[in-house]
Design a protein that fits this description.
Helix content is 12%, strand content 52%. By secondary structure, the chain is mostly beta strands.
């Protein structure tokens, strides 16, 4: 039970970090349910601002090199909501959704000073050179995690549709899903199934 609650705390922190830095009151806040409150609880919060760094996407189908290789700063405004729930058995669920207008600024790894801020791989970064590309458009993304006696699951989807500074279209879509089945408690050992896709 203690291990599961520690996992919950880590994943709820990740859920908040996935969509926004906690520095602004309007970005996704750190929910107490699952982090400082580890007994039965339920909590929901709304937020409007997105301001976060993303690591390079990596292998992706039909994408420009800067999408695949660069760090991206995502800044935008829209509608965000996050939920966290823990039941009496210690089972938990957390989700985080954002949709709105964003600007993506892509930096070559040689032109950005990156600091990993926690064990989840969340980062902060400082540009040290000019961006490779800037795109503006609409982003929708969702994050979800759950763990119970029978399984554990982690998922993420995103969709960006916009244009670069020259007016060229850019559409980026991706999804990731990983699950653990009763070979042990969720999130311990290798997953039963894992798939990640990204394409332009």
């Amino acid at each position: 039970m203690k291990r599961r609650l520690a996992v919950l705390t880590t994943l709820v922190l990740l859920a908040g970090a996935v969509l926004a830095e906690p520095a602004s009151a309007q970005t996704a806040p750190l929910l107490a349910c699952g982090s400082t409150i580890t007994t039965s609880c339920s909590e929901t919060a709304h937020f409007s601002d997105l301001n976060q760094w993303q690591t390079p996407v990596g292998p992706a189908t039909d994408c420009p090199a800067y999408v695949v290789d660069d760090y991206a700063l995502m800044v935008g405004t829209g509608n965000g909501i996050e939920h966290a729930n823990v039941n009496k058995a210690g089972d938990f669920w957390a989700t985080n959704t954002f949709t709105g207008a964003v600007t993506l600024t892509f930096y070559d790894p040689a032109d950005v000073d990156v600091t990993v801020i926690n064990e989840n791989g969340d980062i902060t970064a400082t540009p040290t050179g000019p961006p490779d590309a800037v795109a503006t458009g609409h982003l929708t993304q969702w994050f979800g995690v759950s763990d119970n006696k029978q399984n554990g699951e982690f998922g993420f989807t995103f969709s960006f549709v916009g244009v670069d500074r020259s007016g060229n279209p850019l559409a980026l879509h991706g999804a990731s899903h990983t699950n653990w089945t009763p070979a042990g408690e969720g999130f311990s050992g290798p997953p039963h199934h894992s798939v990640t896709t990204a394409q332009c």
